[in-house]
Amino acid sequence: MDMMEALIAGGWLMLPLLGCSLLATVIIIERLWTLRASRIAPLGLGQEVCSLVARGQVNLYWLESHSPLGGVLAAGLRNARLGHEQVRSRLQEAATAVIHDMERFLSPLGTIAAITPLIGLLGTVVGMIEVFSVIVAGDGASRTADLAGGISRALVTTAAGLTVAIPALMFHRYFQRRVEDITVRMEEQAGQVVEFLAHYPGELTLAERHEGERDGDRLEADGRIAPRVKPS
């Protein structure tokens, strides 16, 4: 039985199963591309930010556009003048938004993994009802081969449902674990920056580009822009 014959034999319930299969495939490909640790939380970024802070060379515009982790660290640095606890709070808020974005589409993928076996089972039940209706009609007992073929066709939907559900469940668990790993990496690097700021003895100076601002102008910790100093 080839693919087209299976689709026809499974009846109309094969259509939602086919739709779930296509949707799951799209989600899996998109999440594989999006949930890359090197894109979301590059290794060494926290240490690099600490070094740049020590030299007064942190550009928040660059940091925000660098990666989602960079955006989290930039949110914390903007509130550094408000105290240690405010930095932690702002980091947590920004990290929550990043985690929410990482978990996008995981719920639909889990739903597909849960409902496709049920759709397949429903198709099998409907098919079995049709088979037994032939037996009840009269001459079904003398058509054993036809009944066996009808039963095998009725089981097609269950097989199709499991075929969709098993990979969807595997990738759902895999993506959940990847989100957890990336979250831990973000927490570790954010913790490095928080501890550095807590023990930083000097005045925090942050660089940032603003509209109308020239290259080299600086954003002080209180939000004022300090123009660059021309060499004498």
Automatic annotation (TrEMBL):
Membrane topology field:
Multi-pass membrane protein
Q: Does the keyword Protein transport apply?
A: yes
Instruction: List the subcellular locations.
Output: Cell membrane; Membrane
- The answer to keyword Protein transport applying to this record is yes
TM annotation in the entry: 6-29, 112-138, 150-171
Q: Biased-composition ranges for Basic and acidic residues?
A: 210-225
Annotated MotA/TolQ/ExbB proton channel domain residues: 66-187
Which Pfam families does the record cross-reference, listed alphabetically? MotA_ExbB
Q: What InterPro entries does UniProt report for this protein, alphabetically?
A: ExbB/TolQ_transport (IPR050790), MotA_ExbB_proton_chnl (IPR002898)
Keywords associated with the record? Cell membrane, Membrane, Protein transport, Transmembrane, Transmembrane helix, Transport
The annotated region (Disordered) lies at 210-232
Similarity comment text for this entry: Belongs to the exbB/tolQ family.
Could you identify this protein by its name? Answer: MotA/TolQ/ExbB proton channel family protein
